[in-house]
Amino acid sequence: MRPASVALCLLAFVCSTSHASLDGAGSIMIIPIVAQTASYTSEVTVRNPYDDALPINVGYTGGMGTTSAGQRACSPLSVPARSSVQFDIATQCAIPTSGQFGYLTLAENASEPSPFQAFSRTQTPGGNGFSVPAYPAGAIEPPLWSFYVLGLKRQAAAPVYQTNCYVASTGRAVSYTLTLLQNDQALGAPISGSLQPHQLVRYLDVFAAAGLATGDYANVTAQIDLDGPSGELMAFCTVQESTFFGADFRMAQPIEVVEPARLRMNFVSDGVYSASYGSRHLLGFRYPDRVRCYITSASAASLELRVVSPDGVSVIAGGNNATDTGTFAIENRASYEASPSPYWRLDVSVREPYSGPFPVHFDVTCETGNGSNIDTGSYEFVDDF
Description:
The chain has 385 residues and is mostly beta strands. It has three domains: 28-138, Hypothetical Protein Tm1070, Chain: A (Sandwich), CATH 2.60.290; 147-254, Hypothetical Protein Tm1070, Chain: A; 260-382, Sandwich (Jelly Rolls). The chain is built from two helices and 28 strands. The strands form five sheets. Strands 20, 21, 22, 23, 24, 25, 26, 27 and 28 form a nine-stranded antiparallel sheet that branches. Strands 1, 3, 4, 5, 7 and 10 form a six-stranded antiparallel sheet that branches. It is elongated, with a radius of gyration of 25 Å. The model is unreliable at 1-25 (pLDDT under 50).
């Protein structure tokens, strides 16, 4: 079914990973906001990169306060081979043609996991509006600390700017607090709420929702925090102007996420079991980046570490008697495309002439700018440094 020439996962938010859906489907994409109102309508495009037709289940979660609030199943799609289809949500999901907003879930239902692409354009009859990409379901996850949306504003003079913010749950109930910040100082009152699974709330003019008096504000940040047990939370804002009804979409972004494959500070604990063999772990990075790995355990005085390029030969950092690689750069992905492996190697061994006792347990921390993963399973290698 899948042609070898198709590049499936070139960008982090372009393709999805395999997740279970309500109907037993595989890869799931979420479009955080679609609308069918007097001012805006949404057109959704779905692309099938494969040689066979791709069945896709469509689900709509209407915003609270609308007449179509909550989950509803829409008509399914069958996207022809190597083709794209477009649809509007009013027709696909049998909702009224005005006063509606919500989020869309697209779940492929093929015989094998089949990542695909999707995109939405929300605009006025005159063509002004904003574009919203589809996000893999796996990208909707709890932050380690907070979500942030930047550059929000309200302005009374033409073109009359207004900021609307949204929070939505997916499969689990979640509680949250939204705080407006200017130069790290809180503006107005925090906005707190709780969502049951598959709910979406809109704060129309978020400055008014925070209890702020009439007036202009600029360069404001929305901070969204999860309260209590963590769950997947979508948070985003739109900044619109009321002269031509142009708008934009701003997804809330975390500084750090819970997902262990994307942690900016990752850890591994293991041991070296003889003077002849070291302990090897595989590293995955998000190119390009800056990286530093170092031994944090008390055993560091007996150990050394190095980081080896995916070519399996080039020592990029560390080496004899080194317990800290220092900060080093990894280049764009294209620099490593000829390598036999996509993985970097983290090698830890004992210093010469250490001869025991064994095992020598160690803890290593790797820091990155974009996030990384470390294979916690180790591999022995002949100690050659």
